[in-house]
Amino acid sequence: MAQERISRLLSLAYERTGREREPDAISKRYVRLAREISSHYKVRMGKMEKNSFCKECNSMLIPGKTCAVTLASSRGQVIYKCRCGANRKIFYK
Ligand SMILES: [Zn+2]
Questions:
Q1: What residue ranges in the chain does DSSP mark as E strands?
Q2: What does the pLDDT average to over 62-84?
Q3: 9 CA distance to ligand 1 middle (Å)
Q4: Residue 40 Cα to ligand 1 middle (Å)
Q5: Which residues have C-beta under 5 Å from ligand 1, the single-atom ion?
Q6: How far is the CA of 53 from the centre of ligand 1 (A)?
Q7: 73, 85 in Cβ contact below 8 A?
Q8: Please, which residues have CB within 8 angstroms of residue 62's CB and are 6 or more apart in sequence?
Q9: Quick one: average pLDDT of 79-90?
C-alpha cells in the first residue's frame, strides 16, 4: 500500500518536472512526500526509485532537464549532477 503510493508520487513528480508553467516546487513536494511515506512506514524504495531523485533538493533527476550525466566508465559509474550541485554516483555493474 505505502509502496504503491510512493511509486505513484514519484511518477507524478516525474511528469511534472520540467513543464514550463509548473514550478519545480510541485514535483519537489511529491518527492518529499514519497520520502516521508517511505520513512514513516519503513518501506524501502527500490533502487530505481531511490536513484530517480536528488537527495539534497528533492528534485527529480532527468538527464538533460534537471541534471547532467557523466559516464565514468573506468570506475563503472554514472554520475548525475543535479542543478543544486549535488552529485549522485550510480554503479551500473
Ligand atoms: Zn539537487
A1: 67-72, 77-82, 87-91
A2: 92
A3: 18
A4: 22
A5: 54, 56-57, 82, 84, 86
A6: 8
A7: no
A8: 14, 17, 18
A9: 94
Burial letters 55-69, b for 16+ CB under 10 A, else e: eebbbbbbeeebbee
pLDDT (tens digit per residue) in 8-60:
999 999 998 877 666 678 999 999 999 999 999 999 999 889 999 999 999 99
Q: How far is the CA of 67 from the centre of ligand 1 (A)?
A: 8
What is the residue extent of each domain of the chain? 2-91
Asked whether the predicted pLDDT for residue 93 surpasses 70, the reply is no
What is the pLDDT at residue 31? 96
Distance 88 CA to ligand 1 centre (A): 9
